[in-house]
Design goal:
435 residues, alpha+beta, single chain, 4-stranded antiparallel beta sheet, 6-stranded mixed beta sheet, 10 helices
Length: 435
């Protein structure tokens, strides 16, 4: 806790959010978005974030995860051995911005500010969070506060939900928490963590587990002229896909949880060669699944459950023999409402908004975050960020023009983070206010 009354602390922090800092945070958000950073190409944004946090006087360095891809770790050393806090965020965007047919606002070079909204690829998920982290630290500094424990900002590569499979390999698909796993194994940990994923300023205290699975069917190929002599792996895969779709309701019912739902995503089907359709039917066909489920079930529980369903399907229809491969697995987690990081965020949000933060709807827990990885290293972590709200009040990262974030949410989230950081790190007034 601080050595000044909380009401006085709040006033000191809010006084620092003057017009100059507001403009700086908006400009920083736009600059972050205008640096393309698809998965595997995060070097430029890492260099930018490194210099911004060095500019605050933090000890910041690059942490090479693999050639050409580096995390950024910036540390404000605590004045004592007090409790530490980690602000974590990912650099990579799920798309490159080079895809055909994207809405205007998804192009990184086309960021715009329209009244109270900033558009651009990655602005909500989750580049705006780095401006919030920067602003929160600046508010603490301007209030003349220093943390008792370390305050750490980690910008990481490869968080988005991707993994190598089949012909897809290399840095552009090496993700699924890649940067935070590396950082955690190399000591970038704290007593608590906040990740600014786009929750729409709601407090999320857990995540579902998830598994990527490939279900493969096999057959025999022929040329078009003799295709009736073939064994159609693609037709089998479609039958398996239809059966899995029908099974999804039973899958969810088998994993009840008071907050989290269960779902199956049917993300892709691959068969044959587009450049040579004369070879048909294809010899193999793959169905790609995304299974989300509460952390009350283990990954192997779900592996056995899915394997059992496929085995039953084969017994009913022997021609539907399948091969099952898991190619990305992430454990979910849930922390209790009595954790200090939860209490601090509820108090900070309540001070700014006059009420405690809401909690996400059940399927929002299916959105992955690196909080799950930090939990495996013993770090209580929550997700709370300014993105995820649309102009019409709906809950989404996008509207009809693309990815967006409210400037007002950027600024209020900054105020919430500053208050939570002061509480969690035992920040105290040790110097006159910065000019």
């Amino acid at each position: 806790m601080t050595d000044v009354p909380e009401s006085s602390l709040a006033e000191r922090l809010d006084a620092g959010l003057d017009d100059a800092l507001r403009e700086e945070l908006v400009t920083m958000t736009r600059e972050l978005v205008e640096i393309p950073s698809p998965t595997g190409e995060e070097a430029a944004i890492a260099a930018y974030v490194l210099e911004r946090f060095r500019g605050l006087g933090l000890a910041a360095e690059l942490q090479e995860v693999e050639p050409g891809r580096s995390n950024v770790v910036a540390r404000w050393a605590g004045r004592d051995n007090g409790p530490s806090l980690l602000f974590n965020g990912h650099f990579d965007t799920g798309m490159s911005g080079r895809e055909e047919g994207l809405p205007f606002g998804l192009r990184p070079q086309a960021t715009i500010v329209d009244e109270d909204w900033i558009y651009g690829l990655g602005v909500s998920n989750m580049k705006v969070a780095f401006a919030c982290y920067y602003g929160a630290i600046r508010l603490l500094q301007k209030a003349g506060l220093e943390p008792s424990g370390d305050l750490i900002v980690a910008g990481v590569v490869g968080e988005t939900e991707k993994a190598p499979i089949n012909q897809h390999s290399g840095p552009t698909v090496r993700a699924g928490g890649w940067g935070t796993i590396y950082a955690s194994y190399h000591g970038v940990l704290a007593d608590a963590a906040i990740i600014g994923e786009p929750t729409g300023l709601r407090l999320q205290t857990g995540n579902s587990s998830y598994v990527y699975a490939r279900v493969r069917t096999r057959g025999a190929s022929q040329h078009t002229w003799s295709k009736e002599r073939g064994d159609d792996a693609m037709a089998k895969a479609i039958l398996v896909l239809d059966a899995l779709r029908q099974w999804e309701t039973a899958f969810e019912a088998s994993h009840p949880h008071p907050r989290m739902g269960s779902r199956i995503g049917f993300g892709g089907i691959a068969a044959g060669n587009a450049f040579q359709p004369a070879v048909n039917p294809p010899r193999t066909a793959d169905v790609f699944l995304d299974l989300r489920f509460p952390p009350t079930a283990t990954i192997m529980d779900v592996r056995r459950q899915l394997g059992g369903f496929l085995a039953d399907l084969r017994r009913e229809s022997p021609e539907l023999a399948t091969e099952l491969t898991l190619y990305l697995c992430r454990n979910g987690y849930e922390i209790g409402d009595d954790e200090p990081v939860v209490a601090a965020m509820e108090a900070a949000h309540g001070e700014v908004f006059g009420e405690i933060p809401g909690r996400p709807e059940r399927y929002r827990y299916d959105v992955s975050a690196d909080t799950s990885i930090l939990h495996e290293f013993g770090v209580p972590a929550i997700t709370y960020g300014p993105g995820g709200l649309r102009r019409d009040g709906g809950r989404s990262v996008y509207d009809e023009h693309g990815e967006l974030v409210s400037i007002e949410n950027l600024l209020t989230c900054t105020r919430v983070y500053a208050r939570a950081a002061a509480r969690l790190t035992g920040a105290a007034h040790v110097a006159p206010s910065a000019p």
